[in-house]
Structures are given as C-alpha cells and as structure tokens.
Design goal:
Jelly Rolls, alpha+beta, 5-stranded antiparallel sheet
C-alpha cells in the first residue's frame, strides 16, 4: 500500500484507515501535519506477520477499548531501519533506533511515537507462542533489546532476512522461518529476563526519572539537581540510571524540550504562537541558549525553521 497513488489531500486519512485495518485497531496521529506520505508492505511467515513501514512522522495509540475489540493477541516487535521509535506501555518507555528492537503487548494499551520520518520492520508474533517457560512477559514489554551483540542480534538479522526473502520462499519454508524467528525472539527475551533481575532497581529509577521529567518538562528549574531532590536520591544514581542511554539525563531533558518546540513551530497560521512564547513555555528561559541548541539540532535558527514551513 502506498499513498503515492493518491492526491495529497487524500493521503493522511487513507493512511490512518490503512493502519487501523492492518494492525487490528490503532488510532493514528500525524502531529498535525497535512503533508504526508507512507508505504506499507506485508507478508506472513507461518503465524508471524511481518510488515515494512516507511512514513513521515506519526504516532499510534491503542486504548483498552480497542484491545477489547481485537480478536487475537500478539506481541509486536518494532525494529527501526531508519529513524527511531518510542514505545510506552505499563509505565515504561523504550526508545530504539537502527540496530536495536523492542517488543510490546497488543492485549494492553500502548503508544508508539515516531517523531521523524521512519522506516521500520514490524513483526507480530502470536502471544501464546511466547508465553510460558517461566517468562514474565509483562516485565519485558517496552524494554530496549540490544541488537548489536548476542542472541538479540541473531534475532534481528533473521527477522530482516526473513522479510526480504519471503517472496522467494515456499509456504513451508516461510513457516519454518517464522518458527525460527519465534524461537530466537524467545531466547532473546529469556536473556533479557536474566539481565533484568540485577537491573531492576536501575530500570525502576529510570522509569521514575522519565515520569518526573514528563510531568515537569515545562518547568525552567527542571535539572539534575532538582530531580535528585524530588526523587530523594543522589546525582550519581541518576547518572548511573542513564549510563546505557544515548543521551545523558541533561541532554535527554533538552532533547524532549526541543522535540516539543519543533512540533509547535511546525504550526503556521493565525493560531501559531510566537517563537519566544514557545521557547519559554517549554522551559527554555535563556533564549540565546535556545537558539544555539536549536541550530545545533536542525541546522537552522527557529525563525528560519518556521519560515521554511511557510514557503
């Protein structure tokens, strides 16, 4: 399915309809964008459904009402090929990019954010095939799974090659490949569960940090010192909690604030807020600092970025 065959004004609503039908009930949000294009291609490997998705920035939401309307429960893997995806479920949030993957449960509510143009491989595994063997699946959802080494890398490589070769496989071969992917995903989760036990406290602290940041992102006083005081822990513990993340805690806060400003600066027309108001609203109380980090992120000043949207 491709939006290329449709008029520009038809593409956004068509995409939302396709995503709803293909993934069994998902509500799409395009960040308010009206200029949109997307492509979906899908195939089956036995009981697995593999989909390659390429699209402009978008979010999808699954509520409990949508879950109750669903017929079959899947665990869904998102493995970015380009861009990044943020998965929120059960109070946890995992951000993954190329070379990593994460997994979540379609029988519970969740939110997936794709804040930039993305290309993802999405693999849906029947939940019943991964349940059991002492695995507490609920503790493993919305956790980043490293695909750089170990069994998680083998699983990622096999998922990708299976999708690429599906057109050349017989039905029996595709079924066997699907069973192999399922086994590799199960082994990856078993390994993740073993790693999770000693990391429980750090992961729990990381979740508390992210929750606190989300609630206070607009507060200009939000800082590592302020978070340490609010959560009653040392700054060293905060730094350790974010040691395996792509951003330090301070840069994570700045990144989220810039994401929010970028979304607002996409809006044009009479209702668009002044740049200064947007920066102050999202916690940037030093406008020269805001302009500098904005240019580092986008290569443009905030006014240049907005003007480009008007042209």
């Amino acid at each position: 399915m491709s939006t290329d065959d449709f008029a520009p004004q038809e593409r956004a609503p068509l995409w939302c309809e396709w995503v709803w039908k293909h993934f069994g009930g998902l509500r799409s949000d395009l960040y308010g964008d009206t200029d949109f294009d997307g492509h979906l291609s899908s195939g089956r490997a036995g009981d697995l459904i593999l989909t390659r998705l390429e699209a402009n920035r978008h979010r999808v939401v699954r509520t409990m009402d949508m879950v109750r309307a669903s017929d079959e429960g899947y665990l869904k893997i998102v493995a970015p090929l380009r861009g990044r995806a943020g998965v929120e479920q059960s109070g946890r949030q995992a951000w993954v990019g190329p070379g990593a993957w994460t997994i979540y449960d379609t029988t519970a509510d969740y939110l997936i954010a794709n804040p930039e143009r993305v290309e993802h491989l999405i693999v849906m595994v029947p939940k019943a095939q991964l349940a059991g063997q002492g695995l507490r699946l609920d503790t493993l959802m919305a956790r980043p799974v490293g695909g750089a080494t170990g069994i998680a890398r083998v699983a990622l490589t096999t998922m990708r090659s299976t999708f690429e070769e599906l057109p050349n496989m017989s039905a029996d071969a595709a079924r066997g490949a699907g069973e192999l992917v399922t086994q590799l995903v199960r082994l990856s989760l078993i390994e993740l569960a073993g790693q999770h036990t000693p990391l429980t406290q750090r992961e729990a602290l990381k979740d508390r940090i992210r929750h606190h940041v989300a609630l206070h992102l607009r507060d200009p006083d939000l800082s590592v010192d302020q978070i340490a005081t609010a959560l009653n822990c040392s700054k060293r513990h905060l730094y350790n909690a974010f040691a395996d993340e792509p951003h330090t805690l301070a840069s994570y806060i700045q990144h989220l604030r810039l994401d929010a400003c970028l979304r607002e600066l996409q809006q044009v027309g009479p209702a668009a807020r002044p740049i200064t108001d947007i920066a102050l609203h999202w916690g940037f109380n030093n406008l020269s600092h805001f302009s500098r980090v904005f240019r580092e992120r986008t290569g443009q000043s905030p006014s240049e970025f907005r003007q480009a949207r008007l042209n």
